[in-house]
Amino acid sequence: MTQLLARGGLLAATMALMTVASSPVVAQSEDELEIFRIEVIVFAHRDTEPPPPWHVNAPPPSLDNAQSLIEDGDDVVPSTRSLLLVDPFIPFQPLPDDQKTLQYAWQRLQSSDLTVPLVEAAWDQYEAPFNDGIAVRVGGGQTLARERANAMLWSSEELEVREIDGTVTFSKGRFLHINVDLVYRVPINNAGPFSRLIEFADRSIAPTPWRSYRITERRQIRTNEVMYFDHPKFGALVKVTRPAEQ
Q: What total of structural domains would you count in the chain?
């Protein structure tokens, strides 16, 4: 009798698991998603000692499927959640200075003899599930080179190689998380910016005219907290807030 009850309990548990596994996963609508504001500042350290060899010439971050910030003139579709609002919400649109809260940090970095601020970016976006966040491209500074987008010699499309480039990814699970993956390129011998075309066939053997340093790290973050990501050659400040609370 005891064995029958045990088997019955095991069968019931198995059926329950099968029912949960077969239940459809209902995605949240925009009305149910929370809006977060992401602010990023990237800066270089002046006159720092050369980092260890394993920090030099790091591979560039992957920009596949990265979301670029919306620029003026881009065709965008406002969120269905805000179609009836006077100022419809458009995710990933760069925010004006009066909506940023890290202006004081940028000014301090500018006035310091130890740092050079290079990139400032801020945008609003919907929450994204943990481990499935949207990588937002963050870049700027000097344009170091222009590469052909493909091997077709008649193609005039070019890709800019920027001093700062990479992605910042925000996700929300039980906690909030920020994933920073940024590269800082420094011209060799301080040659400064230049423009040249690198043919596709020659890329694998052409000397790299800059040294690359990379930060790649994911951390748990709290709202209104300024998180500092450090490297011997450069650093990044990231802040996450809820616009509805401001």
A: 1
